[in-house]
Design a protein that fits this description.
single chain, mainly alpha, two-stranded antiparallel sheet, 7 helices, elongated, Lipase maturation factor 2, transmembrane helix
Amino acid sequence: EIEFMYKPGNVSRAPPVVTPHQPRLDWQMWFAALGHHSSSPWFTAFVYRLLQGKEDVIRLVQVDESQYPFSAQPPVYIRAHLYKYWFTGSAEGSEGPVPWWRRQRVQEFFPTVSLGDPALESLLGQHGLKDKTPLKRPADAILPRLLQALRQLVRPFSGPAVLWALYLVAATICLLRAMGRRPRGAAPPARHKGPRRGEPAERGGGERNGQVRKKDAKEAEEKGEGRVRGATDGHSDSLRGAKKKK
């Protein structure tokens, strides 16, 4: 049985954590299992390339060649069965380690085929998947060479590892840029803090507040004296008028 990197297969293997990577092949196989294989022509081409032993297609199945059972020689026959998988409960299973999955065979999904099989050739011709002459690229094309070099560089690593490495590099660059914007040796901006309860206010501020309070008190006293004087003068004038009448 061919084990894939991400989709359920071996019932004893724990499901891998792949976020934020989206395994395209394993995800498409889930969609293909929802209908007949004729509704997914790419699956016929996939089986055909596995029979040919195409390295690029095999790496979609397993990055680690030791995990692929036909790394030394391509398989002679391939068929595909459809299974339903469920997570197991803590009480399921016999003595020993409890498997992660339990599965049930539903039906055959793809018939047994081999290279040169008339059924396979008919499916390839029906979907227009016969081998075609590859496009000739200019010898001095830079982009294909760059992509090929990049592919060779990340080949030993899985998709999730490559994506997480890119995210960490981007986060490190953003952090270094943020730290570089701050001038060296500069102290952080001072924040104004008001006096706490029970603590005297700052000296300058206390003197200013005292002067303002004294000024307000003096003005209030002057206003009060003016009112008292006005009242006294009015009272004396009324007394003088009364004496004159007498």
